[in-house]
Design goal:
disordered N terminus; 11 helices; single chain; 4% strand; mainly alpha
Length: 263
């Protein structure tokens, strides 16, 4: 697939957005909710009536810790993939939406969010590089009649405010926590013993992030809290990303239907 063109998204790109919008976008939200429910009902996994292969080896409390760490991973992942979605739409006239969505690196998302904070765009159309609300409403009125053109300047403003909120959430996470997420994706370095968790609170789990420090004897894993309020913040963050991402994709598909998604 070409990665250098200037004539706007192809049918493949639009059908990809349609597919993600209707199905794949909600993976992290569904996964996080399933993990949460399993934490609450973790004892059921240890029912002796379950087949042996369907029972955890570790005890209930440690099983809960493992599930809790995965919610954290889903939270950070949702913030990163949201940035990827924004970049794919912003760059649609230069690169394939599919290519950008599948190949954007986390550091590129960080740069996008930092730019959003340091140089706030004046409008959603400026940020996503789409037609302004005035042009969009006129096109909808021409197609559907004035009474059906429900999209408003307030709608664009609310979407942009939500995008800023997501950027703030991601940049508000300590960089060490982002590194912890990257470790969780690959090696699952969860630490439970006091040997590595000196000073850890009773409601905290240790995540190994900097192996150099461990190897040099500087023990001390990153603490991750299992407290209800911390988990709730992450679940809410995932829900926010899920909803605003869906709104952006719905708008993208509407602009394409109006013939207004190209340059």
């Amino acid at each position: 697939m070409t990665t250098d063109r200037s004539y706007g998204p192809t049918k493949h790109d639009i059908e990809f957005i349609r597919d993600v919008y209707s199905f794949g976008w909600y993976t992290r939200r569904v996964t996080a909710l399933a993990l949460y429910e399993q934490i609450v009902n973790c004892e059921a996994l240890h029912d002796p009536a379950r087949p042996q292969n369907f029972q955890p080896i570790v005890e209930v409390d440690r099983c809960r810790w493992i599930l809790r760490a995965r919610i954290f991973a889903e939270f950070v992942s949702s913030l990163e993939v949201f940035g990827t979605l924004c970049m794919a739409i912003r760059q649609r006239n230069k690169r394939s939406i599919i290519w950008t969505f599948m190949n954007t690196e986390p550091q590129e998302v960080t740069q996008l969010y930092k730019a959003l904070q340091s140089s706030p765009p004046k409008s959603l159309s400026q940020f996503l590089k789409i037609r302004g609300i005035g042009q969009t409403r006129k096109a909808m009125q021409k197609r559907d009649g004035a009474e059906y053109a429900e999209i408003s300047e307030a709608t664009y403003g609310e979407i942009l405010s939500s995008i800023r909120l997501v950027a703030d959430m991601y940049l508000g996470i300590d960089s060490v926590l982002v590194r912890a997420y990257n470790k969780l994706k690959h090696t699952i370095p969860l630490l439970d013993t006091d040997y590595f968790n000196k000073g850890r609170g009773p409601d905290e789990l240790g995540i190994l992030v900097e192996d150099e420090k461990i190897l040099s004897g500087q023990f001390g894993a990153l603490p991750l809290s299992i407290a209800q309020e911390n988990v709730d913040v992450e679940i809410q963050g995932i829900a926010t990303v899920s909803e605003i991402g869906a709104e952006i994709m719905a708008l993208t598909l509407e602009l394409d239907a109006l013939g207004m998604l190209g340059t």
